[in-house]
Amino acid sequence: MPHTRVSRRRKKRKLRRRVYVLAPLLILFLSAAGFLISLYIKADTVFTASHEEDTRAGGKSELREEVVNPADDNVSILFIGVDTSEKRNDANPRSDALILATLNSKEKSVKMVSIPRDSLVYIPKVGYETRINHAHAHGGPQATIETVENLFDIPVDYYVRVNFEAFIDIVEALGGITVDVPYEMYEQNSQDVADAIHLLPGEQELNGEEALAFARTRHYDNDIERGKRQQEIIKAIVKKGASLGSVFKYGDVIEAVGDNMKTNLTFDEMKSFISYGLEGTNLSIESSSLEGTDYQPSNAYYWKLDEAALEQKKLELKQHLEIE
Question: 79: domain CATH number?
């Protein structure tokens, strides 16, 4: 009988120890699950509010026979950077940055092409050649998509129009990003205060205002290098966002993006792109720009595209999208 009581006490002690060990783990699991659920709800709410209906016939590019599904198909996304701050107060300004990205679903690879804002191209909306950044002023994202499709002869499936204020908010939400500044620069801030931003050359962490200045400056080189800097900013944001330490900052990042973005992507379609970062650690992001030369026939300056290089880029993007 005494032996039975001792055995019961020992079993109770073992049970208590297990409870003490499992309880914190259970609390941690429930807390993590609750955080992820709240994050999902926030993302759904914010990004759904950023969605704009695709007004194209059939909800697809005219260069597509069928509607694409980013979960299975290779797709393209046009990123349109604009300045629609209260200070500018312009509903349809000229685009300040254009980056066309093609995504290969099987390879989990991305190709980004910066299109210089002064590129001399044909704009279908107006029926003549001028700077590509005028397309947005004449017809918003739709006119810009038509222009880019005409330039590359590939479908533009989706667009993401981002206010440059998003650079500041997203970088601040992530706690800064690391980039390699090529030279010393003085640049205005988001409020157009001259020389408010001073950066020295070298790899360093930039805050939101500094990242915006780094992405926008054109005083020290040209649009080609500007496009490269913008791509570097995007890569730095992706790298910082994918780090484990940024998980608890995702809520702020979601709000920063949602407040400054309009897109024809639905929330479900956005979720499809998560696989590019989750399936393996070798996500390939290749960046490039459009070659050309300075061209100034009168008082207007243009970037005249190199036709041979443009044809090569068209072929490269078609192959990446696996379009015959």
Answer: 3.40.630.190
